[in-house]
Amino acid sequence: MAKNKFRITEKDFLLANRKASRKEEIAKHGKQILFRTCTQKSKKVYDRKRLKQAGINKDDLPVSLQS
Fold first, then answer.
1. CA–CA distance, 66 with 60 (Å, rounded to integer)
2. From CA 17, how far away is CA 51, in angstroms rounded?
């Protein structure tokens, strides 16, 4: 009988690297850093409040664009 050779697949390699990276991050900062703390709002959605905060009024536009 032939022995089965242990093979490291690409998936195993990536998982090991992620795990090591996480451990380094926790050792360095004391906790895991979350880069996505808030959801991003789509700019395509009409939002009157955002327009008011930006100070965009019809009076501020040039005469050629007011029509």
1. 9
2. 45
- In the chain, the amino acid numbered 33 is I
Spatial CA neighbour of 18 closest among 39, 7, 30, 26: 26
What is the number of alpha carbons within 13 Å of residue 65 lying toward its C-beta?
7
- Per DSSP, the residues of 10-65 read HHHHHHHHHHHHHHHHHHHHSS---S--SPPPPTTS--HHHHHHHT--GGGS-GGG
CA distance 33 to 21: 11
7-41 confidence digits (pLDDT tens): 889 999 999 999 999 999 899 988 888 776 667 77
- φ, ψ for residue 31 (rounded to 5)? -160, 170
